[in-house]
Structure formats: C-alpha cells, structure tokens
Amino acid sequence: MTEKRVQINKVVKDQLPSYVKDDSPLVGEFLSAYYQGQEYQGGPIDIINNLDSYIQLNKSGNIVGFTTLSSAVGQFDQTIFVKDTTGFPDNYGLLKIDDEIITYTGIGTTAFTGCIRGFAGITSFSNPDAPEEFVFSTSKAASHAVGVGTSGGQVNNLSALFLKEFYKKTKSTLTPGLENVDFVNNLDVSNFIKNSKSLYQSKGTEESFRILFNILYNET
C-alpha cells in the first residue's frame, strides 16, 4: 500500500559496532525483533516514516478493509486460506477473525502463511469509554468456519485501521455529511473527494442530484 522503504529491523544488526556484537551477541536479535514490532503496517514507526504516503487520498481512499475465508480454519493451523489477500501487508500484518487476532510472516495470492495465532493488537481507534484512546485487545487461538460465527467468515484487515480513520476524517472535512456513507465500488473515491467542491457548489440543482446518485447508487 506504500512504497518500499528500508526498515530499521532489517539493517540494525549490521549497524552495531563489533565490540557490541562480541560482548552481547544477542543484542542485534533483540533490536531487530523490537523494531519489527514497531514497523509493521499501521505501527507507530511505520506511520511516522510513511505519513507522507498515507495522507495521499489515492492511498487512503481505496482501502481494502477485509476479505473472506475460503476454507475452515483449525485452532492450530498456520496457513489461512482466503478469497483474496489484496491490500494486506506482505508480512507481519494484523488480521481478525471473529474474536481472534492473528499475525503472519508471509502472504500468497489467496493465503496467509506462518500465522501466529491468538495474537494481540489495536482493534479499534474508537473507544466509547475513553474517546482519546484506542482499543488494544488480546485473544486466544480458536477454530473458524466459513460463513459461520460472529464474523460470518470475514477476515478483517486490522493493519488498515489507521488509514480508515484518517480517510473518515478527510471525508468529514471535504465532504461533510458523507463521512459515514459507503460509496459505490467502482467509484474513484480519491478523485471524487478532491473534486467534491462541484457537488456542494451545485447543491439543490439537477447536477447535484446526478452526482449524488452516482456516488451512492451508481445510478444516473
């Protein structure tokens, strides 16, 4: 979703002085694991380093929020098969099925591989009990059936939560009143939002109704 940039976790071990490696041979592994836990898509360092890319409407306006299971998932399965993985991070993304949070080390066209089950992570940026805070959840590994359960076999992309929140705030600023409305699938969302001034300039006219019905119902 963002351009490939060098991550600290991939180079930190090679940047350590030789005397540090000799005295503490595991410190490189520790630092690499630490930064890996900060640089996943949607993580704090990732957001800081890629904010210039995330704020572009063509990135935040076409978010893939979920996919669906194509086969049942056992409690100890390390590979999860889905209909499509487009829009999910290449590795160490976070996904949620029912109440279980899962991360993974690899990705294919229709599968997540090297899954680490019963993980933890941010599940929402809206906390009704503390509006200024997000929701951090833990979970346990469980079985999941296709089309069954609280999610109906839906696999939610938790790595896209920040983009979804940013996108919602952008919509409320540039297209007030439409921030909670889902547009039609074939709409170029970023182009519409950037040019939404024409909708509000023509409000109450035949042209405004034409625009509105197109973006909401794909009808002229």
Q: What's the short story on this structure?
A:
The chain is of the alpha+beta class and 220 residues long. The chain has 9 helices and 9 strands.
Principal-axes geometry comes out as globular
Oligomer: single chain
Q: Segments where pLDDT lies below 50 for 5+ residues? A: none
Mind describing the biggest β-sheet?
4 strands, antiparallel
Give the count of helical stretches.
Answer: 9
User: How confident is the prediction overall: mean pLDDT?
Assistant: 83
Portion in beta strands: 5-15%
Q: Going across the major beta sheet, what is the strand order?
A: 1-9-3-4
What letter string, H or E per element, gives the SSE order? HHHHHEEEEEEEEEHHHH
- Helical content class: 25-40%
Radius of gyration (Å): 21 Å
Q: Span from first to last CA?
A: 32 Å
Number of strands: 9
* Class by SSE composition: alpha+beta
Note down, in words, how this protein is organized.
The protein is an alpha+beta fold and 220 residues long. The chain has nine helices and nine strands. The protein has helices spanning 8-15, 18-23, 27-36, 44-54, 57-60, 161-174, 189-194, 197-201, 206-217; strands spanning 66-68, 80-81, 94-97, 100-103, 106-107, 111-113, 120-124, 135-138, 154-157. The protein has a four-stranded antiparallel β-sheet, with no helix packed on it. A three-stranded antiparallel β-sheet has the order 2-6-5, with no helix packed on it. Strand 3 (94-97) and strand 4 (100-103) form a beta hairpin. The radius of gyration is 21 Å and the shape is globular. It starts with 7 loop residues before the first helix and ends with a helix. The mean pLDDT is 83.
